[in-house]
Structure formats: C-alpha cells, structure tokens
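Retro notes
What went well: the complex prediction finally ran end to end.
Inputs used:
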Amino acid sequence: MAAVMPAPAQSRLLMSGNDAVSRAVWEAGVKVAAAYPGTPSTEMLEVISTYPDIYSEWSVNEKVSLEVAFGAAMAGSRAFCAMKHVGLNVASDALMTLTLTGVVGGLVIAVADDVGLSSSQNEQDSRFWGRFAHVPVLEPADSQEAYDYTLAAFELSEKFETPVILRMTTRICHVKGLVTVGERRTHRGAGFKKDVGRWVMVPGAAARRLPKMFERERLLRAEAEVSPLNVVEPGSDRRVGFVVSGPAYMHVRESFPDAPVLKLGFSCPVPFEKVRAFAAQCERLVVVEEVEPLVETELKAQGIAVTGKDILPLSGELAPHVLRPAIAGLLGEPAPVEKIAAPLPVFPRPPTMCVACPHLGVYYTLAQLRNVTISGDIGCYTLGFGHPWNALDACISMGASMGMALGLDKGRGESDEDKKIVAVIGDSTFLHMGMQGLLDIVYNRGNVTVLLLDNRAVGMTGGQDNPGNGRDIHGDPAPRVDFAQLVKALGVREERVHVVDPYELPTLFKRLREETRIPEPSVIITNQPCVLIKDYHKLKPYTVIDDKCTGCGNCVDIGCPAIHVTRRDRVTKASGREVDLAFVRIETAACTGCGLCVQPCAPDAIVHAEKVSVINMLKKS
Amino acid sequence: MSKITNILVVGTGGQGVMTATEILAEAAIALGHDVKKTEVAGMAQRGGVVSSHLRFGPRVLSPQISPGTADVLLGFEAAEGMRWRHMLRPDGLALMNTGRLVPPVVDIGLYTYPDDPVAAMREAGTRVYAFDASGIAGELGDIRLGNTVMLGAISDQLSFPAEVLEQCVLKRFASKKPELVELNRRAFAAGRAAAQAALRGESEACCAAT
C-alpha cells in the first residue's frame, strides 16, 4: 500500500485497536516497525506501512521482527514490533536477554492474545512474559486506550530504558470505537554508543546486568503505584470491589455500574499498595482478568484476600453474561433471570478453502494416498484435516510439520513399519520456521516427503507479501527466494526436488506416489498463487451438463465450495453393490475455471459455461 | 443507564457483513452517538460464520451484545439468521434475506440445510421480516449489492431517518466508484421497499387473524 496523508490532529476517528496503535506509533516518532502477520495482530503493520516517514517491514518471523526493532532501539531510535500471542513464544529468546541490556530508544512490543480462540492453535496469556522477562505490561480496554497507552508505553520505555509489552486481545485489536488523535512528534535517535558491558551479553556482563534489571523492576512497581493508568473509580455499592484489566474493564463497568473499580491499565508489576488501599474501601475484592489468574495469584501471595478464577472461567472472554451470574452467586443472590431464547439447531459452517484454491488439488491427491501419515502446519492448508479430504493428521505450531514428520519417521511403532510420512507446509511458514526442520530431516537422513505449497502469500491472514513472492510490505519489488534452490542448498538431492502445478492432478499424484516410495528426503513444490492475491488470474468458468452427470460424486471430493449437490440417489449395481449418487451443479458465477473438478469427471459432464450457452442456443434454433 | 441500541449483523464471509456494519456505525457517529463495533470473524474469509455487533448511544462500554438483548437482527443469509436469533430480545425484530448459501459440509451430506429457516424462527416466536435480498441484488445486476439492499431494509427500523444511512452508503461509493452510486441508490430503495412490503404483509396477516 502506498503512503497516504494521515488524518489531521484532533480528528475523531472510528478506529480498531490495531488502527489506534498504528496511529500512535506514527505520532510517537517511531523510526522502525516490524512484524510477522498473525491474527489478530496483522493490521497493525499493514496500517503502519501506509504512514509516511517510518520504516516498516514484514519480517520472516517474530523473533527476527523483535531483533530488528531492538537493533533500532539500541541505536537510540524509537521502535515497534507487533505479533500474535504465539509469536512471542518464538521471539522470547531475544526478549529474555534484551530485557537485561534494556533499550535506549523506546521499544514497544504489541502482543495480541487470541482470547476466545477465534483464529489460533491455543489460548495463552502473554502477560506471563511481563513476569518472566521482568518488563512492564500495559493493558488497554478499548481503541482510545490502545492509542493513549501506546504513547505512554514509549515514554515509560525510555524513562526506565526497558522494553514495554502492550498487551492486546482480539476484542481490543478488532473492536472499532472513536479515537481522538494528535500530532506527530519527531524523535531524534541518540545514535549507537559502543558499550560492550551493556550490549554484549556474555556471562560476566549478563551477571552484572541482572541487579540492574531487578532494580528497574522495583522502580517500575513504584511507578505503577502512582501511574495515571491505574485508576480507582469509587462506587456506591461496596459489596464487591473489582480489580480489572484489559477489555474486561468495559464488561465490569457495563455489568456493575455502581461498584467500585480499580482499573489496572499498567498491570505489571502489580501496584500492591494501591490494591491494599482499594481493598479497604470494599467488603470483598474480585479480580477480573483475561485469561489466567496472574494478578489474582500475586495479590494472594501478598496476603490480600481476593476472589477470581474460583468463580470465573479460566478461558475465554469475561463478557457481561458471564460476569453477572458469577457475581450473583458470590453474593448468594439468585442468578439474574434473562429472557434468552434457546438457540435453534443449525448445521456448523466451518471455514473452507476458497473456490479454485491451489491447495484443493493437493488435498484431493493426498486423500487418494493409502498408508500415509500427514504432518501438517499453520496456514489455510491446515483446513485439509476436514471434509471431504481428511488428509492432515497433526498440527501444533509454525514449522512443526518438519520436525514432527522426522519424529514420526524415527519413532515408528511396529504397526507403522510401512507407513509413508508426508509433511505439508506453506511458503511463508517454511521461511518462518520450517527451513531449519527440513535441514534436520536431511542431516539426520529422515525418510520424509515434503510438500511445500508455494502460493506466494501469507494466505490465512489476508495474502500478505513475503520473501517468497518478491514483494515487500509496500508491494514494491523485493529480492525473491528460489525455493527449489533453497531446498537443494539445505541438502535435498536435485533428483528429489520437483516443482509441480497443483492443478495437474495426474502429475501431482505420480510425483507423490514416487517420492513416498523412495526412502530419502524429497520436496515437491507446488507453484500456483493464492486466489486472493493479484498474481491470480481467473479463467473461464465451468458448468455441468445435467443430462451427462451420472452422480458419481468424484468432483464433490475436490472440496470446492462452488460445487453443489442438487440431488441424491441410491442405486444397486449389476454386481449387487449399493452405490450412493450425488448429482451436482457448479455455481458458475463463483467458478474461476481452475479445472480441478473436470479431471475426475468420468462422463465429461463438466464443460466451459459459454459452450453450454452455445449448445442451448443451437437447441432453440 | 441511557438507552443503547444493539444491532447484530450476521452472514458468511464475503457477503459484506462487516462493511455494512461499518456503514451503520458511520451513520450513528454522524448523529453524534458513541459507537462500538465488534465482530467474531476468525476465519471468515474462508466462508465461515460472521457476526458483527454494533452498539450505539450516549456512551457505549462493552462492545458485545449479550444474548437476548439485540434490538434488530440483520440476517444476510437465511440459516445464519436462524443461528443467531437467540441473541434478539423477546420483542426484537429479525430482518432476513431468504437467500441461501449452502456450505460444503451440507453438499457432501454430513448435515442438512433447514427446510425453512424463516418459518422455524417464526415458530420459535421471533418476529421476522423476510425478503429475497440476493434475488433483488441479482435483478439489479450484481449480487454484491446485497449488503446495500439489507441496509435499505433496516433503514426504517433505526432511531434516525433512513436518509442518514442512505447518505452514508452513497458517500462510500461517491469517492471510490462514482459509477456505482446510482445502482446503490436503487438497491437501498429496493431493500427499503422490501422491508416495508414485509411489514404490510405482517399487518394484513394480523388483521386477517382478528
């Protein structure tokens, strides 16, 4: 995206939390911003990349993004990086030591926890990193606060020379609310000052930094005691006082308008004295935090009596309809009776692959293979585990398909002696964390067939650019990695590397069957783009000639959402076997002509739509 | 607490649910309301379920509409409206597109699509205005006009004049695709007329019953 003119100061804008953070990053005079895409954090860097006077990049993974941002902060400039919760697991190796060196220019790490698991493999509480790395954590409750806290985070970062975690959740990132924005201030980088005792973390130097880190934490706790981000809101109904952080604040305020509330915007280190003083005003304290009982446990350790996760759920959002009955129970009151109608039963609508997605051909083919275990990875292609393919057997984290496959190979049980092991991974995920795993497979002589699905995009998060498609975050030309050369350089033998068009089903099947039979590492690279990016070109749509369709259902097994079953039947064959039939139609308006369904259609009933119009015209005339 | 209006917009990925809710939000802001808009749309781009919450009033705290408190349910797809009807308050109103989008799990025979979602909702006691927004959009020449048809349909159910919402819809296109302004004006009017016809149908049925 090209740089656009930012809205003027004092504008009141409808912004998501991600938009608001981005605006504040720009206003704070940040020089370097980096991220790897990940829901719900992706839009931060997308939006930042449209602001002028700021260097932004898609990094290959979150660890690299943090290291890039840290480098800039070491050089005295303000720096920012954004990631989803699991991204900070990847980046944590850098975090755990850069907390020792501290920073010169402000460094803010926005981490987005997917509370409620709308699009993630787990639900974890990133506030733990504040404790683990001894860095402050700020928790905004809506878009305006996301904006305000980002600005505050840079001030805090520079005042205490510490990285600051801005803890977001899906409900902050993606909720839109009104935000009043301000002016951009320029920030002058101090320049890098050579100081090996500080920047070179060898054991002796690191040991000397440890006391400084703990002293910093002590000062930060004192700061949290007086910070304007930690606010007591008095209330007339003192039966329960709430200690809250993050978006749960809004739910508490909505549910209990008369209750006293201590809102912890600066929630780590916890300001114990402030909580103690607040506790004295209330009959009992309830800690409302998403998702783990962190503040609660620390308050209990201080001897402050609080209730929390003993009455509130340990996962998911703490919305008003969750809070109200829990608090009523605590007070021994009957649960509020709400006139809620029962949900009507409706089929599930799981996410599907897109019409003409190049992965459809891959999973249709994988579903034909027998005696195979398929190790999967994070991306759209994770959906291959579902119907109709049922062709993905495991998925845990970015890049894990490689290591898991090698482990499945080396750890075979007796019953798995003849099993073929296949690993499936996307282009961006391979570059993120898969390359090392493939190197491990090669180096340790694993027997794994790797399917590298190169669709030239980070598909699941919206088709972001990456080093595999030759475009940078602005869409401008950038050096493009050559996957075939790369995997050969990692040691896969040239004869075992194949580039295949995933729309050519016979070739794909032949290659997969051959390579799974050869007991050495091989890589099959598919080479067609994601249908959601500009590299994809639509072709002429198809339709079904009703008279010719025999109901074999082969095309349905492709799993394309444009193919619909119009009628089912059951017939008895001459052999006496009963066969289910499914007659189909193709939604021509949605079809983009990939031709996958044409290939398994035995009676040649699927033809280009325009051909049928001509036939109909001739019939009429 | 001052009155907050809760509007729940539901459908499937790619139908324009989130854009429609954003336009509703812009209209509320134009009238000086505080606004919060949120959706659960994790993998919506992959044809999944999208539900978008819009709350507006003097000051909005929680962005989420609690079950049983939505004033209006705007259903972009028949079964999706049915899926979320429990979010409506007992006397709330559902404005429903009768158009259907059948997912692959139904096509491959794992689940069945409800015979008549609107009838099922009415049977369960929900007040429904139903009309074929997809068909109306198709007749106007582009199925993508469906979300403007739906916005036209809701425009008489808001606490502000329909024209405010219409202006917000047209403003979107005026800057980016001026050639689509007239088409969207017609789609908005058609949606408004469809909802009004559904209302008349309801009152006629009501009179017939008494």
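What we learned: The CA atoms of residues 538 and 592 of chain A lie 5 Å apart.
What to try next: split runs per interface for comparison.
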